[in-house]
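RECORD TYPE: protein structure
NAME: N-acetyltransferase domain-containing protein
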Amino acid sequence: MFEIVKNKDMLSECFYIRREVFVKEQGVPLENELDSFEEESIHIIGYDKNHVPFACARFRPYNNAAKVERVAILKPYRKDGYGKTMMHAIERFAKDKGYNQLVLNAQVQAQGFYEKLGYIQTGPVFIEENIDHIKMYKNI
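PREDICTED:
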C-alpha cells in the first residue's frame, strides 16, 4: 500500500496529491508548496487496491533526525486509518535508513492525530503559510 517513490511518474503522482490537498483545499501558493528539498527527500506514496494514488509524504535529513513533511491524503480516503498506516510506514522506512528520531511541523488541527501515534509537542504554535503549526517529535 505504501512504498518509497522510485521514479518520476510516482513523484508526479505525489505532487498531484499535494496540489489537491495543500494548494486547492488549504490555499497554499503552488510556488511555496514545491521547494528546494524535493530532490534530497525520500518520498512515500500510497496506492489503493486499484493502484490509484491517494496519499503521500516525504522525509529528509534534519540535524540528527528525519524531518517528515508534506503529509497528505486525498479527502475521500480520510478517516479510514490510512494516515496511521502511512505514518507507521514512514517510521519503518526512516528506521531502515538509520534514523532513530522523527521531527515534524504538524498543522494544529492534526496535533491530536500525531499525539495518538506517540509524537510529543516541543514548542509553541507558529504560523506557516497562514496555518497554525506545532513542532513535534518521536523517537523510533
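COMMENT: The chain has four helices and eight strands.
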